[in-house]
Amino acid sequence: MPLLSSLTAAGTWHLLSWGTLLGSQFFQSFIGGPVAFRALPRPMFAQLQAKIFPVYFSLQSALPLVVLLTHPSTTKSYSELLLGTEAAIPMLVTLVTSAINLGVVGPKTTKIMRARKVQETRDGRKYYEEPVSEEMRFLNKRFGVVHGVSSLLNLVGLLSTAAYGIVLGSKLGV
């Protein structure tokens, strides 16, 4: 059966992994996140994102590895893949940006969100309700910076994944 033998082919997993990676990045960045932000009250949105992002960043870190390990050049030479084929660079960028979000920026964001929750209790109002205390203003500013860094890393990863698709398409002769 050709379908079953396809499931053991590296090329099958290569395309499925890349497609899942790009699709999840696009969905989270432009559909799921924005829709949830508009549809949910702030506290519920924050809770949802706090649960989604560790899973999302884990997936965004694992899938580039699968794409790299199933790349057609790996059947010829791992050194060719690691020493700078044009295909490896975008996936390595995606891997690095996602790993930074997973291991550094995401936990820092969660830590700031917890600190804001504590400060809300002290202040007797939500982090977004005016007037905000100096402590809350500081935490909100830190959150904005860290969130901005996370968004930038995510955008770079998305663009790198799309760039890989362009390289892949050119190699397929499409």
Automatic annotation (TrEMBL):
<dbReference type="InterPro" id="IPR025423">
    <property type="entry name" value="TMEM205-like"/>
</dbReference>
<feature type="transmembrane region" description="Helical">
    <location>
        <begin position="145"/>
        <end position="167"/>
    </location>
</feature>
<keyword id="KW-0472">Membrane</keyword>
<feature type="transmembrane region" description="Helical">
    <location>
        <begin position="20"/>
        <end position="40"/>
    </location>
</feature>
<feature type="transmembrane region" description="Helical">
    <location>
        <begin position="89"/>
        <end position="107"/>
    </location>
</feature>
<keyword id="KW-1133">Transmembrane helix</keyword>
<dbReference type="GO" id="GO:0016020">
    <property type="term" value="C:membrane"/>
</dbReference>
<dbReference type="Pfam" id="PF13664">
    <property type="entry name" value="DUF4149"/>
</dbReference>
<keyword id="KW-0812">Transmembrane</keyword>
<protein>
    <recommendedName>
        <fullName>TMEM205-like domain-containing protein</fullName>
    </recommendedName>
</protein>
<dbReference type="InterPro" id="IPR053009">
    <property type="entry name" value="Xanthocillin_Biosynth-Assoc"/>
</dbReference>
<feature type="domain" description="TMEM205-like">
    <location>
        <begin position="16"/>
        <end position="117"/>
    </location>
</feature>
<feature type="transmembrane region" description="Helical">
    <location>
        <begin position="52"/>
        <end position="69"/>
    </location>
</feature>
